[in-house]
Design goal:
Distance between the termini: 30 Å
Radius of gyration: 23 Å
Number of helices: 1
Largest sheet: 9 strands, mixed
CATH class: Mainly Beta
Helix content: under 10%
Number of domains: 1
């Protein structure tokens, strides 16, 4: 199942560079073990509703409570038990979380009202729940609170409208798990007994704050486009990380190179080209350049740019949607402008080697998983001051 930056989704039995998303529906979905394709939409107001498509007739699942919102990744298909889970939470009440189990068995309009209580944790109204995975009585739920992403393991028991949820151990932040300030984007409880978690860090940081999914050429800002796949195992006190792959640990610095173009080569300044060039001068080596936590192009087959979702789950392999960007600064002497290179691709991770399969990487030309942007057009136009091509990534 592929989901783009507009949250439109489409099923694809295979992908290549020309694969596109044809639907214009904002929904998430999955294909079950019987080959039936399910998708779900949400609506909120005085009540909250999931509408499930896949059976002969759409089924509406209503939670009779106001001030509810969906978990960002509100759809989880448990491949082990062939069970479809849905999740929502209150934006005003602490501990008010709703889960629907076996949703694909619901064929008529059904109403629920009692929230699940997540015992031992109290984080609303500051938190945003981002993803979850449930299998049997096992539950992992991710949330972001005051900018930090956490993962909590819990035990879930009961049935729809009467669940009891009890935390197991303390939540761990992504920093605790060895991936700094990354955000948890997807979770899966796998056949092999491990739990796999996707972590993405994309954006830039500046003095006093940060921005998600956008990039900056402001001197002193730090740009990020990296991610990891974590493998976890459960313990009596929660969980531990057994391995991670694809994470760009160290930073690198890039610089503006070559002799600055003379005034006679700069077009008139109505387009701001001259001021762009002047700003790029601050990114010279002697001034510190621009710091990146982004894989080099030569590292693209062993590192993530920003993994977003599990696209397919197999016993020996996970297929992952990966999205991010890379930056190149101008090289004036070689008459090359800078570049802002977006990456949207699908990659496979071999679970035995626990590494990206370099032969599996497919770059997508027609799908954007994340709407990445940059805060300026400095040096990134072939219509600008050099009249030449972009620097090669």
């Amino acid at each position: 199942m592929l989901t783009n930056s507009s949250r439109y989704t489409d099923f694809a039995s295979s992908v290549d560079s020309t694969t596109s998303i044809s639907t214009k529906s904002v929904r998430l979905g999955a294909e079950d073990t019987n080959g039936t394709q399910f998708t779900v939409t949400t609506a909120s107001g005085s009540t909250f509703a999931f509408t499930l498509f896949g059976n002969e007739n759409p089924a509406t699942i209503v939670i009779d409570k106001s001030n509810l919102t969906r978990i960002t990744d509100y759809f989880y298909y448990d491949t082990i038990n062939d069970s479809l889970w849905l999740g929502a939470y209150s934006t005003t009440d602490e501990n008010c979380i709703f889960f629907i189990k076996d949703a694909k068995e619901i064929t008529d309009e059904t109403h629920y009202s009692n929230p699940c209580t997540l015992s031992g944790i109290s984080i609303n109204p500051n938190a945003t729940y981002t993803a979850f995975a449930a299998s049997g009585t096992e539950l992992y739920i991710a949330y972001t609170n005051v900018g930090t992403s956490y993962l909590q393991r819990a035990k879930i028991e009961g049935e729809n409208d009467s669940f009891t949820i009890t935390t197991i151990g303390n939540p761990q932040s992504t920093q605790d798990m060895g991936v700094d300030d990354g955000q948890i984007t997807d979770i899966v409880i796998h056949y092999d007994g491990y739990v796999y978690v996707l972590v993405s860090q994309m954006g830039y940081s500046y003095t006093g704050g940060s921005s998600q999914n956008s990039f900056s050429l402001t001197p002193g800002d730090i740009n990020y486009s990296r991610g990891a796949l974590l493998r976890l195992y459960s313990t009596s006190s929660g969980f531990k990380v057994s391995a991670k792959t694809g994470w760009k640990e160290d930073s690198r610095t890039i610089y503006t190179k070559g002799e600055k173009p003379g005034e006679d080569t700069i077009y008139n300044d109505y387009s701001g080209v001259k001021s762009y060039i002047d700003t790029l001068e601050y990114l010279r080596e002697e001034n510190g350049g621009l710091k990146l936590y982004v894989p080099k192009y030569s590292e693209r087959n062993s590192h993530f740019y920003g993994p977003r979702r599990f696209v397919a789950i197999k016993p020996k392999e996970l297929t992952i949607a990966d999205s991010g960007a890379n930056l190149i600064l101008p090289d004036y002497d070689n008459k090359k402008t800078g570049g802002f290179f977006k990456h949207n691709r699908v990659v496979n991770v071999n679970l035995y080697k626990f590494a990206i399969d370099s032969t599996s990487v497919v770059d997508l030309n027609s799908i954007s998983f994340v709407a990445a942007s940059i805060n300026t057009t400095i040096g990134f136009s072939t219509d600008g001051y050099t009249g030449a091509t972009e620097a090669d990534e």
